[in-house]
Amino acid sequence: MKKVIVTPGFDHYRRDWHFSPAIDTGEFVFLSGVTGSGTDDSVAADPEPQFRDAFQFLSATLVQSGCTVGDLVDLTTYHVDLRRHLRVFMKAKDEFVLEPYPAWTAVGVAELITDRALVEIRAIARRA
């Protein structure tokens, strides 16, 4: 079984970019990278609310699939100016991701596809 998960208000990503925001395989949910963009593609200029928005989007997508942030087993985050924003990112992440922590890899990149985005979060969740 493979089911496409789309967070309400974000179906235009699937139409415009031809990808699945999340795939539910039954045991696992694989999430494509999410940023802190809103349904209108706006992105907060300040890093802290942008990172918080990204985790809220991630959380909403997980809920849409019947999971929660507590079901995360793996996070890969892609950062523009990784070292400059890491402390602020960690603060936002720690509001959402609690122990037992998922595996996590942070990668610095030159840019992301979403204009003005500072982070993109890719995740895998496992149903409890």
User: How would you describe the shape?
Assistant: globular
CATH architecture: 2-Layer Sandwich
Order of helices and strands: EHEEHEHEE
End-to-end Cα distance, whole Å, is: 18 Å
Q: Strand order of the main beta sheet, please? A: 1-2-3-6-4-5
The average pLDDT value, as a whole number, equals 93
Biggest sheet architecture: 6 strands, mixed
Structural class: alpha+beta
Number of domains: 1
Gyration radius (Cα, Å) is 14 Å
CATH class: Alpha Beta
User: Are there runs of 5+ residues with pLDDT below 50, and where?
Assistant: none
State which percent range the strand residues make up: 25-35%
Percent helix range? 25-40%
CATH-level-4 superfamily name: RutC-like
Q: Helix segment count?
A: 3
And the CATH topology? 60s Ribosomal Protein L30, Chain: A
Number of strands: 6
Molecular structure report:
There is one protein chain. With 128 residues, the protein is of the alpha+beta class. It has one domain (3-126): 60s Ribosomal Protein L30, Chain: A (2-Layer Sandwich). Helices cover 31% and strands 29% of the residues. The protein is built from 3 helices and 6 strands, in the order βαββαβαββ. The chain has a 6-stranded mixed β-sheet, with helices on one face. α2 (47-64) packs across α3. The longest helix has 18 residues, at 47-64. It is globular.
